[in-house]
Amino acid sequence: MSLPRRPNLMAVATLLLVGAIALAPSFCQGAAVMSVDLGSEWFKVGVVSPGVPMEIALNKESKRKSPTSIAFRNGDRLYGDDANTIGVRFPANNYFYLVDLLGKTIDNPMVELYRKRFPYYDIVADPKRNTVVFRNGDDLYSIEELIAQILASAKEYAEDSTGQVITECTLVVPGFFGQAERQALVAAARLANLKVLQLINDYTAVALNYGIFRRKEFNETAQYFVFYDMGAYKTSASVISYQLVKDKATREVLPVVQVLGVGFDRTLGGLEMQVRLRDYLGKEFNKMGKTKTDVFGNPRAMAKLFKEAGRLKNVLSANTEHYAQIEGLLDEQDFRLLVSREQFEELCKDLYTRVTAPLDRALAASGLSLDLISQVVLFGGNTRVPKVQDILKSHIGQELGRNLNADEAACMGAVYRAADLATGFKVKKFVVKDAVLYPIQVVFAREGESGSTRLVRRTLFGAMNAYPQKKVITFNKHTDDFEFSVDYAELETVLSQEEIANLGSLNLTKVSLTEVAKKLNSNKAENIESKGIKAHFALDDSGLFSLANVELVLEKTVKEDDESTLQKLGNTISKLFSGDSDDEKVTTTEEGSQEDGSKDAEGQTDEKKAEEDKTANATSAENATLAEEAGEAAKNKTEKPKIVTIKEQIPHKVEVVYVPALDGADFEGAVKKIRVIDEADQAKKRRETALNALETFVIDAQVKLDEKEYASCATQEEADTIRKTCSEVSEWLYEDGADADAETYENKLEEIRAVANQVYSRHWEHKERPDALNALAQMISGAEGFLDKAKNFTKEGNPEKDVFTQVEIDTLTRVIAETSEWMDTEQGEQTKLARHEPVRLTVKDLTDKMALLDREVKYLVNKLKLWRPKVKPTPPPKVEKDAKKDDDKSEDTKSEEPVIEEPKVDENDSSEEQEQATEETPKIEPSKTEDGSGEQHTEL
């Protein structure tokens, strides 16, 4: 008999493994991340997790977006649609349209507008920060606390979607958010236990989402697009360019999306249209004279009108007319009114004249004309309004781009950015460059020749400057402690007076420097020259401004004679490894002038570093040669003074002048307040879960005892006990137990389970036993088939194929026989027992026997896999000798013993258990979807 081929041996082994091997799930290391598009009316949550493509997380109602609202009532906290439902009955208990109140003081015009739109809220000032606080009875809620809880609910949706804990996110913000608003949102995220990877502007996120699906369409020539957004609260337009650019450091050609111009209108949006329609409906109801009560003085009636106005606004986008109808609007009087689209447009007539202004301002800021724009692309829910589309189409003279998912584009662009910034993910690189909306300047005092002091202003970040970037300001005439401030600059050129007022404080920070004279005096010497005090500023990719550090820069002239031999040796070696003979020199600038620490400067630094690394990797032999040559050159060259740069940190204090962020004791107080609400929420959920579980078990037990297959598994005494216990618990639930706590419900459930579980256990055994018996029978049959083939691989059966010993064959034979005999005996005894009697043959007994048989067979299967035939020694090859050289080499030539090598075992030819799966970083690929209109749009 010839040895079977390996595939046949594997097939034989597989017979034994069928039904005996369980597939374990494979886990990929890494953590999920999310994005939140926190709109004024709705928020969307994007998620990405290892092995799962980017998608929108669904909320508790399986919807893709949730209302940005939160309500409190009788100790309960509600979100989204539930909160809005409470808000119709108790308007002051439901808080919505909160985003534009972030970072605002109580006297901000946007807060006054909010009060006008929703007069039933009691808004007071925070005693320390003068920010907005909602008061409802004894309860006080700051904007950061409310936003934090909404973000926490978004985090919960994302975790439910991915099945992982999420701690990192990107947040979509309006591009016109200033420093106070951005800092307030970051503080709210911290309250929600979220680390913000980046605050990304809404139009930037949409532009990124638009570009990642069109990478192949871009080239070295810039292509220009306008993204127009009309949301619930505001309208914005942005001019965006796409271009392929070669990276200076990596030499890789990458697509770049850059913001070139932005225009916006903070108060033009769907909310203003809805409020106007609400007020129109209220006036019409008052005209009907159904009641003497003024509808505008009743908060509940106004909340009903607001909700109906929102529904009517959406319907009129698709229909020319529709009825507004509310049951029991006021004093139990119903309201019904036919409203046409023409009437609605007349109400918003002055708003429509403002529709094109953000687009024109964006084009003006970018310096581009409309004929250079490839397309105007729409996003935002209120761009679906037909009148808005007609105005834009007429203004630009071309078709509008509607191939984006208007609701989800920003969220999906932000989650792509989150995957790029987070560790554990691999995405196709897409460089993002945003633009500064509000110029930032440094203001400081300088004493003139006449002794008078004047203020000097230097712009740090100009309008439409790309960021992130760094800047340096040098003060080289100040010899004592001084201070400077950082403010918004030249806003009149980019904003109207109304928008400037909405921005709030124009002053950002005040910086005080100390120990300036002390540092200068301690470094006074003939060979030391001061190069001024340098302040390093940064604008990060979230648009957040910061002062990195302040330092005194000095240049010291050192002659080589002043250096010791050891210093010279150290300097020589240092030069060899640095590839540069001079220390880094700081560029001298006039007082108040600036040095750009980004872009080109950074690119040069990267190239220099690469050159240094290349030199540093030279071999020791090369270094020794270079050192020797350097020594010879040093003897022959003329000695030159060496310039050494010295930097000393200047102590400084930064005082925030604009609305301070929630921090310190105020932050800890907010954390404790939210924790108390969370604990109450968890206790409520636990009680509801326990009550539902108890009620379900009682009803289920009563129903099952009426079914024959369950009733047959219980004795009469057990059935009576279960029925009695269920009846008692049911009566208790609807009487004394209605107000019980979660622990009481859980204890009651354990009591009734203890009575019923014996019956349920017997039923389960009788139901599962046939499948377990069948599985064991198949294993016995497979083992017998394997045993018949294994007998041909013994020394007695086939001396050349002695894989197994006779003892191993006899052992397997005995185990098969014992298992088969046991199964027949136990099965026969079990059939003699009634279904309600104690079970003799359990499923566990059967699985134990299967495990024993499986262990014996696997041992032989693995031995068969690893067995290799013995290789006979081969004779050495004959060596031919050159007859002419035989005599000369006869004494030097020695015979060698032949080397016999064992054949190498192919390491890849092993069992599946020996192979290890290599984990790769998940690669994020975008996918295409369609929106509800049937039009193609793209999402990740």
Which value, in Å, is the CA radius of gyration?
40 Å
| End-to-end Cα distance | 60 Å
Shape: globular
Low-confidence stretches: 1-29, 572-627, 882-940
The amount of helix comes to 40-55%
Count of helix runs: 25
Task: Note the quaternary state here.
Answer: single chain
Number of strands: 32
Mind summarizing the main beta sheet?
6 strands, mixed
Mean pLDDT: 82
User: What is the beta-strand fraction?
Assistant: 15-25%
**Structural category:** alpha+beta
Describe this structure in words.
The chain is of the alpha+beta class and 940 residues long. The chain is built from 25 helices and 32 strands. Helix 1 (6-17) packs antiparallel against helix 22 (742-790), helix 4 packs across helix 5 and helix 21 runs antiparallel to helix 22 (742-790). It starts with 5 loop residues before the first helix and ends with a strand. Mean pLDDT is 82; it is low at 1-29, 572-627 and 882-940.
Q: Top keywords for this entry?
A:
6-stranded mixed β-sheet, 32 strands, disordered N terminus, 940 residues, disordered C terminus, alpha+beta
